[in-house]
Design goal:
about 400 residues; alpha+beta; 5-stranded mixed sheet; 2 domains; Substrate Binding Domain Of DNAk, Chain A, domain 1; elongated; 5-stranded antiparallel sheet; 16 helices
Length: about 400
């Protein structure tokens, strides 16, 4: 890159200035991770827009790491975001407005330029595909009090939620992280995700109609879109992406459970994809295609970091062990690919998603594959359940 072009990017892009960062701290922004050395003071040339920043402190030897803490920001052109390490609480804190402005001016004069790592612009495309529906409004409506997302504040919150066997294992792994300990200063309410009912029962509806409603979740989708998202399809997709990023980069179990609920809701619709919400489903399938494609990328450069407790790769066992995604995808693929008439874009992206899952996970979606069987274990989450949830009130 030419020197003049680089300087323009430095000036136009946002900067994350991190003061007093201990050595061996893992610092992440979007799909990129940095391992702090003695002179590391942050990241420059950050494209304006929404980003996810996350970090994990280590012990002195750099071989044990604390649970990740992450937060979303919307960076303006040339903005300088200044954070200072608080050694007592082992987290980044904001400076006073006056002190923050003083450091911001120093950054704009390039006084910290040599101590700032450049944002890898060749990875920006991947981040945009993971976050293109996340807006400032999405962040403000979902983020927890204080903005910080961390598993430390989720142990009680997710303890009473029904989880599959694999999710229980994940919960234990995250809860028992080497540095994990109750944090009295962390907000206990977590993120403000939209409540997604799994099944419905409406007053005055016949048993057969109720069964049909629960087999086709279009009615639930329409109700939630109207009442929770003000009719905005993109707002729903923004929450889907927020939850996935908070899970993948922030290692939030609460976020994974919300992502799973939203994916299960959308893949459980049969009327909406083909008739009433085709555009929404095209955008949705495209969104989860990139979530899984980018999430499954194995970057050899991250191997040492992953061994130390931080990774931005998706654990295949989460999706494979309990078969929730495989089961739902198989039905959805049959619905779209066997339809006599279907939107061309929806058909294209559905085929791409099927090929990705077949290639990456080795899943077989042929009609005679074993997943066709309707044998339901006693604790099978796909077994029919009736729950009284009145969506009209």
């Amino acid at each position: 890159m030419e020197a003049e072009a680089a300087i323009e990017l430095v000036k136009h892009g946002a900067t994350l200035l991190l003061l007093d960062v201990p050595q061996n701290t893992l610092i992440g922004i979007d799909t990129q991770m940095f391992f702090s050395g003695p002179n590391f003071k942050g990241v420059k040339m950050i494209p304006p827009g929404v980003h996810f920043i996350y970090y994990s402190s280590s012990n002195r030897e750099g071989n044990e790491f604390s649970p990740i803490v992450g937060f979303f920001v919307e960076a303006s052109p040339s903005e300088v975001i200044v954070k200072k390490w608080d050694s007592k609480d082992e987290r980044f804190v904001k400076l006073s407005e006056e002190e923050g402005e003083r450091y911001a001016q120093a950054v704009k004069k390039l006084e910290f330029d040599r101590q700032l790592g450049p944002y890898a612009l060749d990875q920006y495309g991947d981040w945009k595909r993971l976050s293109n529906f996340i807006t400032k409004s999405t962040i403000e409506s979902i983020e927890p009090i204080g903005g910080e997302i961390t598993i430390i504040s989720e142990s009680e919150m997710v303890g009473n939620v029904h989880k599959t066997a694999m999710e229980k294992v994940l919960a234990e792994q995250l809860k028992n992280s080497k540095f994990s300990k109750p944090d009295k200063k962390s907000p206990s309410n977590g993120c403000y995700y939209t409540s997604i009912p799994r099944v419905i029962k409406l007053k005055g509806v016949s048993g057969q109609d109720l069964t049909n409603m629960n087999l086709d979740k279009t009615h639930i989708l329409e109700t939630i879109l109207t009442k929770q998202y003000g009719g905005s399809e993109d707002s729903l997709l923004g929450e889907l992406q927020f939850a996935f990023v908070a899970f993948l980069m922030g290692q939030s179990l609460e976020a994974f459970l919300q992502w799973k609920l939203l994916v299960s809701l959308l893949l459980g619709c049969t009327e909406a994809p083909l008739h009433t919400r085709t555009q929404l489903f095209t955008k949705f399938i495209k969104a989860i295609y990139y979530q899984l494609k980018i999430g499954f990328q194995k970057d050899s450069k991250d191997t040492s970091r992953a061994e130390k407790g931080a990774t931005t790769s998706l654990d295949e066992s989460l999706l494979s062990a309990d078969n929730f995604l495989r089961h739902l995808c198989k039905d959805f693929f049959s619905l779209v690919l066997d339809a006599p008439m279907v939107d061309g874009d929806l058909l294209t992206w559905t085929r791409k998603l099927r090929e990705l899952l077949e290639r990456t996970l080795g899943w077989d979606f042929q009609p005679n594959s074993s997943v066709d069987g309707m044998h339901l274990e006693e604790d099978d989450e796909f077994a029919p359940v009736v729950e009284i949830l009145d969506l009209d009130h």
